[in-house]
Task: inverse folding
C-alpha cells in the first residue's frame, strides 16, 4: 500500500491516542486503532500503533520517570522477552482475525465485570512473584499480534487492587520495552518499511502533544476515576478488536 502523506483524521487519531496514553500509561491503540484499523490494513496499522506510542511514552517517561519502578517491572519484562518473539512468529501463522476476536471478547467481558463489581475486592494471590513473568509472557505474545502489550498487565494490576500510581509504575516500563523490541523485530523482518517509518514520524508529534495533555489530567484525576477510566479504555480496546 502506497502512503502518500499523513492527513487530518490520522493526526486526530494519534493525538487522541496520546491523550489516553498520557492519562493511563497504555491504551494508545484502543483509541488510535479505531481509525487506523478502518483506514489501513493491519500490516500498516499495527506497525504504526507500535511506533507512534513511543513518542507519547517518551513524554511520560520524562515527566514521570521518578515514579517508574524499573526493578519491580523486571518480572514482566523478562516474560515479555519470551512472549514477544513467539507472538511475532505466530503473527503470520495464526488466524489474526479470529485471535483478535477471542482476545477482544475476553478483555471486554473482564472490563464490563470489573466496572460493575466493588473496587474494594481484589485477588492478592496474583501477587506471587512468578505471576509477573507469566503475565509478561502473555502480554508480549498478545502485543506482537495486536499492538496492545499493556492490556494483560493492566488487568493483572487491577485484579490486585493496585493504585493508579503503582499500576503505572509497573506497566509502563514493560510497555515501553515491548514496543521498542517489537519495532526492532518488525523492522528487521521487513514488516516496517522506510516509507512506513517516514509516515509514522510525520504523525509522532501529534502523539507526543496528546501525551502532554494526558499526563496533566493523570495528576489531577482521583483514584476511583482513574480506575474507571482504565477499565473503560480496556472495554473499548476489546470492542475494537471484536469489531
Result:
Amino acid at each position: 500500500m502506497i502512503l502518500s502523506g499523513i492527513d487530518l483524521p490520522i493526526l486526530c487519531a494519534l493525538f487522541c491516542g496520546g491523550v489516553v496514553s498520557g492519562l493511563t500509561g497504555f491504551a494508545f491503540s484502543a483509541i488510535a486503532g479505531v481509525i487506523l484499523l478502518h483506514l489501513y490494513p493491519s500490516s500498516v496499522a499495527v506497525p504504526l500503533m507500535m511506533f507512534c506510542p513511543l513518542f507519547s511514552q517518551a513524554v511520560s517517561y520524562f515527566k514521570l520517570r521518578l515514579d517508574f519502578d524499573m526493578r519491580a517491572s523486571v518480572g514482566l519484562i523478562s516474560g515479555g522477552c519470551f512472549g514477544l518473539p513467539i507472538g511475532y512468529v505466530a503473527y503470520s501463522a495464526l488466524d489474526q482475525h479470529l485471535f483478535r476476536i477471542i482476545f477482544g471478547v475476553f478483555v471486554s467481558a473482564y472490563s464490563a465485570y470489573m466496572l460493575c463489581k466493588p473496587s474494594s475486592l481484589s485477588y492478592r494471590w496474583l501477587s506471587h512473584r512468578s505471576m509477573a513473568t507469566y503475565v509478561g509472557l502473555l502480554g508480549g505474545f498478545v502485543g506482537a499480534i495486536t499492538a496492545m502489550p499493556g492490556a494483560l498487565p493492566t488487568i493483572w494490576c487491577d485484579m490486585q487492587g493496585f493504585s493508579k500510581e503503582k499500576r503505572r509504575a509497573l506497566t509502563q516500563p514493560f510497555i515501553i520495552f515491548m514496543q521498542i523490541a517489537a519495532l526492532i523485530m518488525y523492522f528487521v523482518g521487513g514488516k516496517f518499511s522506510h516509507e512506513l517509518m517516514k509516515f509514522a514520524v510525520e504523525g509522532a508529534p501529534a502523539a507526543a502533544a496528546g501525551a502532554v495533555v494526558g499526563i496533566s489530567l493523570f495528576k489531577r484525576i482521583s483514584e476511583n476515576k482513574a480506575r474507571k477510566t482504565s477499565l473503560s479504555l480496556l472495554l473499548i480496546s476489546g470492542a475494537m478488536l471484536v469489531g
Q: What stands out?
A: Residues 75 and 133 are 5 Å apart (CA to CA). The chain has a mean pLDDT of 81. The chain has eleven helices and no strands.
